[in-house]
Specification:
The protein is built from eight helices and eight strands; from the N terminus they run βαβαβαβαβαβαβαβα. With 248 residues, it is α/β, with parallel strands linked by helices.
């Protein structure tokens, strides 16, 4: 089985962190391919950057389809391009916020989310509502830590994440979802520090994608997630043009 874990930003160090977190939980025989786009933002901390990251995500899914990849993980907590990726892919596509919420809901009565910047809090609430988990979310707490600071040894970003997670549990949450793929490699350390379950969406999405492939399940293709229709594209999006398939 091959799972392509797509980091929607273009920072190679974060791609390696994400790939290691996914590979650590993958079953024997599962090949984890961590990739990032050739174009797009260095990190995603705004709606603008999220929108600009989507073409790169779709590019990596299209490459994966040509290579025979079985499933995909969209490794950014905004789940950018998730619906569009499901239209392109033959196999399952899982977002890390989606997977993190599902996992946390099975670990206690209610859970909280710890994210990076305050401007991303609204997106986390929006996704919790979309996925049906809004009533279970105690709070979405921002660390005011830039994404790229999470990988900076000179930064106190990780200590800040631990303290914010501790505050979420003190506020009544049974579990915490980490709201950034860049937090994936220290999830276990956070859990030990606060003595509560902490969910990394990268790991959760990887295991969930594996499970769906083993069950022979994939996205329904008879309605909204059917393959996009052929349509001309122009300008910088010309390479994304879909052509009509010729019947054999």
């Amino acid at each position: 089985m091959r799972i392509r874990v797509v980091n929607p930003n273009t920072t190679a160090a974060m791609t390696r962190t994400i790939g290691a977190a996914a590979a650590a939980v993958a079953a024997p025989g599962t090949i984890v391919e961590a990739v990032h786009p050739r174009m797009g933002p260095a990190s995603i901390e705004s709606h603008y950057e999220e929108a600009l990251a989507v073409p790169g995500v779709l590019e990596q899914v299209a490459i994966g389809e040509a290579d025979g990849v079985d499933a995909y993980v969209v490794a950014c907590f905004g789940d950018p391009g998730l619906d569009a990726a499901r239209e392109l892919a033959a196999g399952p596509v899982i977002g890390i916020a989606e997977a993190g919420f599902h996992a946390a809901a099975m670990l206690g009565r209610r859970f909280g989310v710890v994210t990076t910047l305050g401007r991303t809090v609204g997106r986390a609430h929006e996704l919790a509502d979309r996925y049906g988990f809004a009533p279970l979310v105690t709070e979405v707490r921002a660390c005011e830590v830039p994404v790229l600071a999470l990988d900076d040894p000179a930064s106190d970003a990780r200590a800040t994440v631990i303290e914010e997670c501790r505050a979420v549990v003190a506020g009544g949450a049974d579990a915490v979802v980490l709201g950034c793929a860049g937090m994936a490699d220290f999830c276990a350390a956070v859990s030990r520090a606060i003595c509560a379950p902490v969910v990394d969406g990268v790991a959760a999405a990887t295991v969930l994608a594996e499970s769906l492939v083993r069950l022979g399940l994939t996205t329904g293709k008879h309605g909204e997630y059917a393959s996009p229709p052929p349509k001309p594209m122009s300008g910088v999006l010309a390479p994304f043009e879909r052509v009509a398939q010729v019947a054999a």
